[in-house]
Amino acid sequence: MKKNNNNDNNLKKYFTKSRILTIIAVFLFLAMFFRDNLVSNKQVKSDTQYIPYDSFIGMVDKGEVEYVFINNASPSTVQFLPTQAYLKDKNILLTQDGYYKLTEELSKTKDTSIDSKIIPTDGKLRFITENPNSENFKEDLLTKGIRVFSVKTSETLSLIFMLLLNFLPFILILAFMMYFQRRMEPADSEVVTDVPDTRFQNIAGYENLKNDSKFILDFLKNPQSYEKIGARLPNGVLFYGPPGTGKTLMARAIAGEASVPFYKVNGSDFVELYVGLGARRVRKLYKTARENAPCIVFIDEIDSIGGARGAHRGSSEDDKTLTALLNELDGFSAKNGVITIAATNRLQDLDPALVRPGRFDRQVAVPLPNKEERIQILNLYKEGKKISPSIDIDKLASKTIDFSPSELENLLNESAIKAVTRGSDIIEQEDIDDSYLKIIIKGDKKEDKHQTETEKKIIAYHEAGHAVIGHLLGKPILEVSVIGTTSGAGGYTLSQPKEGLRTKSDMKNEIKELYGGRAGETMIASSDDEITVGAVNDIQRATRIINSYIKILGLNGSLINLEELGMKRPTDEIIEQAEQISNELFEETLDMLKKNKNKLDTLANMLMDKSLVDSDTFLSIMNDTKEEWEKEEKVVDLIKADDKSDETYI
Fold it and tell me: Transmembrane segments in this chain: where (predicted)?
């Protein structure tokens, strides 16, 4: 009920008498203007007989023009009526109600001016030419026996037209001012909401996060308990984590469980071109929230306005908006009954003043789901979908490491779409596999019919190199293909990433797997000149990892985060270290492929023949390779027994 009253008050406030009168006046002016235009357009579009001025003078000299009509409302043209002989010569039908009635009325007229309603409007009798606007034009016509009439137009219409012509720019300016004034006011969607129907039961997994959020529910329901003991509750709670992990859904569920209004805005809603508008929106939002307390204000992507202030800040307007938000948070107390929940994907970019005690001092991580949570999420999202009993949700959860809840939902939705396009009313495993592939490779398969055997061989050894190295390093290989994709890749190798903490060894192995493609091409190239640029994306990703390895993660002999010291551009020393790591890892990768060349050749030949190799076929090829490689590596491990650096966790 309060929401409807607010709507009515806002409407009454906006539609004041002065604004209504202004709108009516503008509407009437524009209506007259467009009416006049419509009449004018209707006349222009009729079948008017246009005669060039030279031809008109020729007709005058021959005595073929009988009447001329000069209209001041149309100063660029002159209308005239030829003689009866001329019209008959042009095979124009002369009717009793048309031509003869018109000429009779004109001949009886003794005045030199006539009403605009009398002159011909029929296209067959409506002749026009250019108006020379010369002083002797009318006199020359009269001396040659041609009657010249001045056309009288409606004084009211002329007055309105002149007013419009003079005041139209001001009307347009007024209209734009009203439009921008409306745009500058905070949108109703920012301050109007309902109690969400989302509950914790609508969120699969994340039990720890739900438990951490229960203190908010308790505060909203029993604030007196906290006041009695003198506890200071945080004014803001900050959810941070990767995109798609359900931060907004969790905030809605908290409001739903507490049965309080939920005010959702996006940080970018406060970013405005006009000075002071962002801060004004913040103040209006919190004013409405206080009027409807207890409630929850949710600010998504708060980094849009809450970024660290400094030299790289967008503008002073952003600073004013952030300051307004900080002031609102400082003004809250337990009696307000308003809790602000914010969400961000970039916690490190927030201004320190925003996350200090008393503001967003309660920070809750919303991570990517683990396997058990992915099982729960998949089971939740499969409700309402017809899925084949043969689909193993446990296996699918193991396969979807690093998938967010939104990506898992998208996976099942894409699978349902695939099933429909396939003509089936049930989701099968092939639909799941195709959708999984589409998400991973960011596109669909696209076979290149113009691909040569040489190109296919290079791609086959490239992908075989990725797959063999990944397998030897202990990563499950799901599928290898030399079928191109709509994202531009010539082939792909699907592998299952490791779940959990990443070690120094994991990062090295990831680089080796990326280098496997270039190493595979090197195995069949007779010289460096024959190596293609197909590994450009692999090299870019590997370089990014090496950069983090040296500058950020402290894994190369120094426990200094060089970027925190302001080092954005690499020094010669950093480049030298990166080249050394890259060369060592590539040589190790190439050596691994040389020791398993027979398996590399077998896999590449099978890819050239069948274009796609599944996990079972791949394992049958690699069955003995890993054991042989491990035996050789054990000898090396004995020599490096004292080196424990590869077990450093990050």
Answer: 20-38, 157-180
